[in-house]
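Handout, page 2. Input:
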Amino acid sequence: MIKINTQKLHTTELGKKRILQNIGLTIDEVLVWCAQNDFANVERQGKNYYVYSKDFVLTINIQSHTIITAHKRKKKSVITGR
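Output:
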């Protein structure tokens, strides 16, 4: 299981704007969510972690603990599975 130090998580001003624009949450709301969840659904791809919730995906830089962006999760089609 991948461990993420939630005490070190932060973002930039541009990151705050992207998160608010993409998923409609403030960085404070995202940090609260991070603190309350166990990161059971985390993937490491290259230099980033991808943290999956039911509704969105966070992209976190591994070395700097910076939340780069967040996107709404796309719903899979029942027919095609994509």
